[in-house]
Design a protein that fits this description.
By secondary structure, the protein is an alpha+beta fold. The chain contains 12 helices and 9 strands. One of its GO terms (cellular component) is cytoplasm.
């Protein structure tokens, strides 16, 4: 059961600079008054009625809080406190200041498979812990893999954004069409019963991209990408995988399996020869192999451009909606009072834009 405190968050935390903002609220740096410790505050605007168009439903926030409270792990974003008022919920979470993993990798001149494996191992350990609790993330992608601090020799990875995560209940079927097109599994597209195995498909896609700088199923449109996923239309082109070890390709092939029951689990991935070499020759082979940095840098630049474009488009669309709603209210304010419009003018904008169903490339 999620625990929401009814006290004023500012009695316990000093609110600092805004770190990001979006459709549902904003994220600010905060300092705990009692200890001086620095955290991040996610100020999420709640819908005040079923007819409101702005804000999040309380039950969706409650679900995310319950999941984060169930996942105390060094590679998963920590949740410290939750405060609730009539208009918003404030999540006090770990301050993760190292940026995205893929941005960190793109800054390097070269990277061996051995170094890439150190990142994948941390991700797999977090996912393994998550799955042991019967929880699936359902939105594993580069944007949700962050570094706690990049100015260290061995950066610590944190998985974030559990807005689509789900805790499975024995005997209860779960289906969903949510996710980001190039990372979702075939069973999501086909609207079939889901399991934690859907996350393992995403791990396969992420590994493929990390090693080659190419997305295995990316098409010119979301529709084409989804068709490629369902038809298992991918390959290891020599021009992108010429420096990739055979054992790394085997790792990916055992994750990009259409039948969820045939995919490696997170536990099995951790003992796969690519992650945990069986012999010295295996270890030497992966250290001689390297990721395609030239192509990876291009992929990451396109991905960042796409994210910026999507954010600008979303902000422009929101502004147009606000102007239209204000116009309607002025024309007939007695007939209909737009509660969501009033919320929008009386409070600050809301949380990190959830890049759901965005075609990041």
């Amino acid at each position: 059961m999620a625990l929401f405190k009814l006290q004023n968050v500012e009695d316990f935390y000093e609110i600092g600079d805004v770190l990001g903002s979006g459709h549902y609220g904003q994220v600010c740096a905060v300092r705990e008054r009692a200890t001086g410790a620095r955290w991040a505050g996610k100020f999420l605007k709640l819908r005040r009625s079923a007819s409101s168009r702005l804000g999040l439903e309380r039950k969706s926030v409650e679900k995310e809080v319950e999941i984060l409270q169930a996942l105390p792990h060094c590679n998963i974003m920590a949740l410290k406190d939750v405060f609730e008022s009539r208009a918003e919920v404030v999540l006090i979470v770990e301050l993760i200041g190292g940026g995205e993993l893929f941005d960190f990798v793109a800054e390097k001149e070269n990277l061996s498979e051995g170094e890439a494996i150190e990142f994948m191992k941390q991700i797999l350990e977090a996912v393994s812990f998550m799955h042991s609790k019967k929880i699936a993330h359902f939105d594993l992608k580069p944007e949700n893999m962050m570094l706690l601090d990049k100015e260290v020799s061995h950066p610590h990875i944190k998985i974030i954004d559990f807005g689509l995560a789900h805790c499975f209940i024995q005997g209860k079927e779960y289906k969903s069409l949510s996710g980001t097109p190039q990372y979702i599994a075939p069973e999501v597209i086909n609207y079939e019963p889901l399991s934690v195995a859907s996350d393992m498909w995403s791990i396969g896609v992420i590994t493929y991209i990390l090693l080659s700088g190419m997305s295995p199923f990316q098409g010119d449109t979301d529709e084409e990408t989804l068709r490629n996923i369902v038809s298992m239309n991918y390959e290891f082109e020599d021009r992108y995988f010429s420096d990739t070890s055979a054992v790394a390709k085997d790792f990916i092939q055992n994750l990009l399996v259409k039948d969820p029951s045939g995919r490696l689990t997170a536990e099995e991935c951790l003992v796969h020869p690519w992650i945990k070499p069986l012999t010295r020759n295996d270890a030497a082979s992966r250290n001689r192999s390297s990721i395609n940095m030239k192509n990876f840098k291009k992929f990451n630049a396109r991905r960042k451009w796409k994210m910026s474009y999507n954010m600008v488009w979303a902000c422009n669309r929101l502004c147009r909606m606000q102007l239209l709603c204000k116009s309607d209210t002025q024309e007939d304010s007695d007939l209909r009072k737009c509660e969501s419009d009033q919320e929008d003018t009386e409070t600050k904008p809301a949380s990190l834009i959830r890049r759901r169903l965005s075609s990041n490339s």
